Amino acid sequence: MEQQTEQRAEVARFCDNWKVPQEPTPIGRHHGLLTEFRRAFREGPPETPLAMEGPRLVGEALRSGVQLEKVLFSRRGLEQQGAKLLPQLSKHTEVAVAEDAVFAGAMDAEHPQGVAALAAWAAAKLEAVFGERALIVAAAGLQDPGNLGTLIRAADAFGASGVVALADTVSPFNAKAVRASAGSLFHLPVAARVTAEDLIAACRSRGVRLVATGARGGVAPAEAGLEGPVCLMIGQEAAGVPRALLRAADATVSIPIASRVESLNAAMAGAILLFEAGRVRGH
What we know:
There is one protein chain. The protein is of the alpha/beta class and 283 residues long. The protein has two domains: 2-119, CATH 3.30.1330.30; 126-281, SPOUT methyltransferase, trefoil knot domain (Alpha/beta knot, 3-Layer(aba) Sandwich), CATH 3.40.1280.10. The protein has helices spanning 2-18, 32-42, 55-63, 75-85, 100-105, 145-157, 175-181, 196-205, 243-248, 266-281, and strands at residues 25-26, 50-53, 68-74, 94-98, 115-119, 135-140, 162-166, 190-194, 209-213, 230-235, 251-253. The chain has a six-stranded parallel sheet, with helices on both faces. A five-stranded mixed sheet has the order 1-4-3-5-2, with helices on both faces. The longest helix has 17 residues, at 2-18. It is elongated, with a radius of gyration of 22 Å. It starts with a helix and ends with a helix. The model has no long low-confidence stretch (mean pLDDT 90).
């Protein structure tokens, strides 16, 4: 009790010194909020809120208008990031601070960066990914969340209208995918758990060409017709795009690479094709 009183006094002095409007509540290692963070990092939406960790992600979420429900600082994180982040939080956000070791025990990162947040989150509807001029990335069978998150980042960087994670793909809201997206998840619509049949039907009804990637035997990117409405279907490196999607594809595109290299990973292949699509579209 005495230690907690000292913590409260220290936090109050910090907030007073930096003129921040919201005073974080000190919590101990058995507090229920830590359990919420552990579960959210382990499971993710739709079962739990979206979990994010690190000042870059939390800051990008705030800049993007994401409503943060709960924010947790480590003691060191509060000292380093509190003056910048606390004034940006809504008065409705629950804010807490824990000792560094207690904070680290609730995170999924090996070296947590002192601040984490939970946000209410829902996947985008499939129709939202088409935008005004469809350039869609469909991830088919990707199992590495870091790979998927990097692909989302590339889609954001090169002007994609949205991303679709098909039903056999790891969740784009997995904590590692969120981290790898570096905030791009907050910038463009990302639909999840979409069936191949629904994607094909939605593209057909809107006149969007389906272009599958293949390691060998496809047309060159410059000849793939990427200037029009298109959905780029990216498969995992080992298995490639599933057969059902290959049969539905209007074209297959292959990136020329040295013969000694078997293939590119999904994020790298996606980034190259998105760059080419952006180039021919004048992005």
